[in-house]
Each structure stands twice: as C-alpha cells, then as structure tokens.
Design brief:
425 residues, 21 helices
C-alpha cells in the first residue's frame, strides 16, 4: 500500500511549544526572503541542492553509453538515430576502432535509402580511412575500409583492403563478408561465393555474412538459394529495411512479383512513410501492367517526398505508357531538375528522365524540345537498348523534317560484357 507522506499523521521528534506571534512573523519574512533568493539563483544552486538531498546532476553520457544507445537504435531499424549516437560516441572516443566500425557500417546501410543518401557512403569512407590511419593493423578497420570502398563504387580498391583484413584476422567473419561483396561488384562470382561461404562458416549468425553469401548466389542465378540466405538475414535483423529491398529484387528476378510486393509491405509496416518502398512498389506494379495501382503508389511517393527523383521518374514512366505525354513530361522534368540541383554525375543520373521525356516531346511534334534531351542522354552512357530508343526518337525528328540525319551519331557496335550483378541501389 502506498502511503501519502504529505498527508501522514506520523511526526518525528517532540512537539514544540507554540511561539509568540511576533517571532512567527520574523520567521515567515526570513523564509520568504530565502525562497526568493533561491529562485533568483536557481541555476547556481542546483548542484549543491541535489548534493544535499543525495542526488547528483545528470551526468554527461560517456562514449560507451552513447554507443550502446546507437546499437539499440540500430536494432530498432532507426538508422538515423543510430548514426547520431555513434557520431557522438566517436567524438568522445576518437581512437576507439569498435565505435568507428559500427558508425561506418550504419552509415553504409543508410546510404542504400536512395541516391540522395549517397553522402552517407562518403561519410563512411572518411570514418574508415581515419580508422585505418589510427590503427593500420586492425582487422576491423581494414574490413570497414573494404565495405566503405564498395559503397563508393571502388570495388577493386576494396578487394585489397578486404584481403588485408582477412590476413590480419583469419577468423573474422565480417572481413570475409565484405571481401565477398567487393568481389561481387568487381564481377568475380566464384571468388565472391567462396568468401561469402567462408564468412557464414566462420559465423552463421552474422547478418553481413548471410547477406554476402546471398548476393554471391544471386550473381550466378541461384535465386532460390539467395532468397533463403536473405530470409535468414532477416531473421537475424527483422527491422533492417535494406534486406527487404534486396530480397524483393530477387523475387522479381523470378517473376514472383507478389513476393516482392509482400517485402515492400513489410517495410511499410515498419515505416509507413518510407518513400523508397512506395517507389519500388510502383515499379513492380508497373512491370505487372497494373498501371492504376502503379500510379497510386507513385503519387503517394511524390506526395510524401517531393525531393525524391526516383519517384518522379517512375511516375513519368507510368504516365507515358498511359499516353499522358504532358503529365509524363512534367514528372520527368521535376526528376531531372532535382538531379541537376544535386549535381549528380551524368553517368549516375536517371536517364529515363531525359530520353523518355524527349520521346514524349517528339510524339507531340516538338522536336525543338526533344532534340537537346536526346543529345544529353547520349552523354549518360546509355546501354544498347536505351541507345536504340534514343536513335529511334532522333530518327522520328528527321522524318518530321526538323533535323538532318547526319546529326545522329552512328551507334557503336555492342561490346560483349559480363552480366552486371543485380544491384539494388
């Protein structure tokens, strides 16, 4: 039973005899003055007041406490909060390689949220490079450098760091995992599988090991086996949205679009405002030719985040195939303006926002608008299929009599290249 001490009839000590009225008045005035003084100097007396009642002022969290808070946020799937805690921890303990490793890894996972989060991968590389500078013979530092270099499209450099990491600690599963992913992006499937399989053998409960093995299996078309590894990774960390986006890619590679939609739905259960999930859902419905559902998902995405170029790109494609050319042009223009403003390198841009916008203008008999877009598209390293569409669009402008055929570049014969891995981002 809880006793209200402020209403208790119990008193400690003997009862004092009642004083005279004058003495009570003096005591009352002195007490009032003391209270006013305390209020006026409240900030300066907090420390000694708390000490007097047996309580200390709130202590500043130390690096380990902050890192633990970052870890909890990571396991909740709240990567931005995790980054904030880990950054504070790293500031307090700049030479702690374990904290730097966790910070770098979370930054890399966050960078997968979309092109506008590429800066997180760049930050991760800075963290990794500093870790290696501090402790060049530390396996975790070298493994983080490998992971960060992959995230910054430097797979060959990453392989060297990964090999150094496994040399320093041959039992370290994550070192093999990141080396596997480096091989994956370098187009070396056999070595990717070997390193990924070794990672899982070293630590079957490692999320990064399971993910690396999944990617290596998918690279050689073993989609069922890859999906099984992704599902095992999801069991290890069910709140990490990256894994759902990746497994959905390989469901779609099997034409299992329902499985992909279910994966995106799982992301939206965790994060109802996830614009990337709505965009990927729009892409999937578009592939299924469920144009009404695709448009609904895309419109939800652009309303949720009007700065997300991928959503405008996909909405433009839905509108284009629905013969809403004016609406498609509008969406593609927003998409391209966002990428121009972000100074995205030409080869990394959403090329559809240029060449399909050009096709839409050409179909509206506005080759004066279409032609410059086709020319810009040619500078974005289009693949063979897209190059064919660009040439068709330019030829249509020649047919209109607006351009001369000599202005169309002669297509270069295709060069055989190894298949690219089904990257997610």
């Amino acid at each position: 039973m809880y006793i209200r001490r402020d209403r208790s009839n119990l008193h400690f000590g003997s009862q004092r005899r009642r004083r005279g009225g004058g003495a009570l008045l003096v005591i009352w005035v002195v007490t009032l003055l003391l209270v006013l003084a305390v209020i006026w100097r409240f900030d300066s007396v907090q420390t000694w007041v708390l000490a007097g009642v047996g309580g200390d002022p709130t202590a500043t969290p130390n690096a380990i406490t902050l890192a633990q808070q970052g870890e909890r946020a990571y396991w909740r799937g709240d990567l931005e909060t995790a980054i904030g805690y880990y950054e504070q921890a790293a500031e307090l303990a700049p030479d702690n390689i374990d904290i730097r490793f966790e910070l770098g890894r979370v930054l890399i996972y966050r960078s997968y949220a979309g092109r506008t989060y590429d800066f997180r991968a760049e930050q991760a590389l800075e963290v990794a490079q500093e870790a290696v500078r501090i402790a060049p013979d530390n396996a975790r530092a070298q493994a983080l450098l490998c992971n960060a270099l992959v995230a910054n499209d430097r797979a060959e450099d990453a392989i060297a760091a990964g090999l150094r990491a496994v040399q320093l600690d041959p039992e370290y599963a994550e070192a093999y995992a990141y080396l596997s992913v480096a091989y994956y992006y370098a187009g070396r499937p056999n070595q990717a599988f070997e390193a990924g399989d070794t990672a899982v053998q070293k630590n079957p409960d490692s999320l990064d090991a399971r993910r690396a093995l999944a990617l290596s299996l998918a690279f050689v078309g073993e989609y069922n086996a890859a999906i099984q590894q992704f599902e095992r990774a999801i069991q290890i960390h069910p709140e990490l949205d990256v894994l759902y986006f990746e497994v959905a890619t390989y469901y779609k590679a099997q034409n299992n679009y329902e499985g992909a939609i279910a994966a995106y739905d799982r992301v939206l259960v965790m994060d109802p405002d996830n614009v990337k999930a709505y965009t990927r859902m729009c892409e999937t419905y578009f592939t299924m030719r469920e144009d009404a559902l695709a448009q609904e998902a895309c419109e939800q995405a652009v309303q949720m985040d009007p700065t997300y170029p991928e959503a405008f790109r996909q909405l433009g494609m839905v509108r284009y195939t629905s013969r809403n050319f004016e609406g498609a042009i509008e969406s593609f223009e927003v998409c391209s303006d966002l990428q121009d403003a972000a100074e995205v390198p030409l080869v990394d841009r959403e090329i559809q926002c240029w060449y399909i916008r050009g096709l839409a203008w050409a179909l509206l008999a506005r080759c004066d608008e279409a032609w410059p877009l086709f020319q810009e598209s040619l500078q974005m390293n289009p693949n063979e299929v897209i190059l064919g569409h660009i040439n068709d669009g330019m030829m249509s402008c020649v047919d209109y009599g607006d351009r001369d055929i000599s202005e169309i570049p002669t297509p270069v014969p295709p060069t055989p290249v190894p298949p690219e891995p089904l990257g997610v981002y």
